[in-house]
Amino acid sequence: MIGKIAKYIVQAPRLAIRTFGRLNWPARIAVVLAGVGVFSVTAIEVTGQPGFCNSCHIMNSYYDSWTHSSHADVKCLECHLQPGFAGLIKGKINGLAQAIDCAVGRVGTKPNATIKDASCLRSECHSTSELAAKPIDCNGVRFAHDKHIDKVVDGIRITCGTCHSHFEGNDHFSVDHNACFVCHFLGGSETAGRPVKTNCQGCHKVPDQVIRRGFVKIDHSDFVSYKASCEESCHKREVRPASQVEGTVCLNCHDFGKPADANSLELHESHTNG
Length: 274
What we know:
Elements: H1 2-22, H2 25-47, H3 50-53, H4 60-67, H5 76-80, H6 85-103, H7 117-120, H8 128-133, E1 136-138, E2 141-143, E3 152-153, E4 156-157, H9 160-163, E5 164-165, E6 174-175, H10 178-184, E7 211-213, E8 216-218, H11 220-225, H12 230-239, H13 247-250, H14 264-272
Antiparallel strand pairs: 1-2, 3-4, 5-6, 7-8
């Protein structure tokens, strides 16, 4: 029985070619189109599975972090491709280009991905109205989405990925608290002071307990009563970090440094649009 099956498997390609050769041209074209269609649908389905992403060794750590994340029940392409047929086609073309790069050894060790707002805010995922409905507590800081969604800061539009991203460690997707400092506290040569002017109490709750530092008692209610500046009184060091990107940071991904005349908006655009 096994011998007959093996013999049939060996002869099957010959029989298929012989049968195909006996068909007229319209039938041949129909068979070819049907074969291409079946192959395309199968390829799209197979390459859309998370396990296929993990077949590339540089994705192993990202795949592992995804399996333990809050989005573990969401397939990779549901986030990493924009919704719609155009987004699917563009993603497949990019994927084919990446496969070619991998085959010829042009794959880097630090893959980069940008999640578009359209993916986050699709109807079955997150809702802008629900996010804006109520503030959330983020490690003791009051955060309101409605004050951030679609806002433009210093020429740069705030997106979901501005704060939510994979930026370090084993977390697949988390909030980068450094983003708060970039907008609220950093100043640079291309900006006149800080990009965003805010009141500390707009985000932070005034501590209601007395804090002791050695022999000193700190009662924040006293400072609030005479409208003392948080920054000028005690927290100057925390809110005045230098706004400077060293050229060596670029070398983490590139083989060249940041040009001295690089425009911050152009750099941001090229590094956040994927």
